């Protein structure tokens, strides 16, 4: 660095420095002072002096825009770990935090963790979704992976660590949600016949009747049951969550996450009778447990009043289904069966969506829309009768019957 007359000039304090280091050019920029009062300098390198000058200029532009300088060393894995442990707690429910941690640990970190955050591309995301599809993962699971990464990169974008959210720009997984198995009315009756008199008689009946999630059913409370009005509020859930800091897991009863999932069920006299018998049986268990009983106010607790371990219920349900001659059925398939059987009785989709606690009717239609294929035809027939005064077709005389009965053109 020389002055106008050609003599060397000392670089001013805080000015950028550019120098050659072997075959590379390097530069350092002063970015002010850190929280500890010490100067903060950022180093860059390039194949040419002009490249270093451009990088230094970009650093100052970021500083002028109140953005932090990009960290080319920060990996996607390190950022996801920091986002999950520092930024996410308090924003979501503990169970959701647990689910996000699983998604990061099992899918995002192994595939993208070693890439630099600033170098992550839309193509990287698209290739990951493609690999997961080829590995047999469902569209729903891949959508969850993309949603977690999109939310994390949204934080990076707000902090100025990345110029755009590449997960949002990636192609979302297509495909229709696979249709789950459902019990037929005969199978449902066989299951209820098998559990009749069992301590989980009422639990299985309520889950099947309303399509409750496993945790929701285990979190039902007596004080949310109005015997006079015949209603039961669904507001809490039993879940096992993990603390990744300590490695311990614990069973918790927590409030449901969304307003749509918190709902009120209308009970029929038959179901109220089932719950009356269940309460009598629970009173007997409480007397038998004596001082060991821990009252949590749960409708479906363990034999000593504590919340039931969800996996224990799953295992017991498998045994009950096998005893009923149905084979292996998961609690979530009871939910799917309850919804399907309700729709088969002609219940409107929006009502079923409310009973299930779906966040939107679009989710209900996505999962159960195939059960409503006859409704467009019925709607067209009703409109035709209204416009043309035609009576309803007798059985076996639909559009095809009319076409075959019409006279042939001359």
Architecture blueprint of SSEs:
Blueprint: E1 17-21, E2 24-33, E3 39-46, H1 49-64, H2 76-87, H3 94-112, H4 122-134, H5 139-158, H6 166-169, H7 185-195, H8 201-210, H9 214-218, E4 225-226, E5 231-234, E6 236-242, E7 249-255, E8 263-266, H10 269-289, H11 310-323, H12 331-344, H13 349-356, H14 361-368, H15 375-388, H16 399-405
Antiparallel strand pairs: 1-2, 2-3, 4-5, 5-8, 6-7
Task: Walk me through the structure.
There is one protein chain. The chain is mainly alpha-helical. It has three domains: 17-64; 76-169, Tyrosine recombinase, N-terminal domain (DNA polymerase, domain 1), CATH 1.10.150; 185-371, Intergrase catalytic core (hpI Integrase, Chain A, Orthogonal Bundle), CATH 1.10.443. The protein has 16 helices and eight strands. It has helices at 49-64, 76-87, 94-112, 122-134, 139-158, 166-169, 185-195, 201-210, 214-218, 269-289, 310-323, 331-344, 349-356, 361-368, 375-388, 399-405, and strands at residues 17-21, 24-33, 39-46, 225-226, 231-234, 236-242, 249-255, 263-266. Helix 4 (122-134) packs antiparallel against helix 5 (139-158). The longest helix is centred in the C-terminal third of the chain and has 21 residues, at 269-289. 24% of the residues are buried. The model is unreliable at 1-14 and 395-410 (pLDDT under 50).
CATH architecture of the largest domain: Orthogonal Bundle
What is the number of E strands? Answer: 8
At the fourth CATH level, what is the homologous superfamily of the largest domain?
Intergrase catalytic core
What gyration radius follows from the Cα positions, in whole Å?
31 Å
**Span between termini:** 101 Å
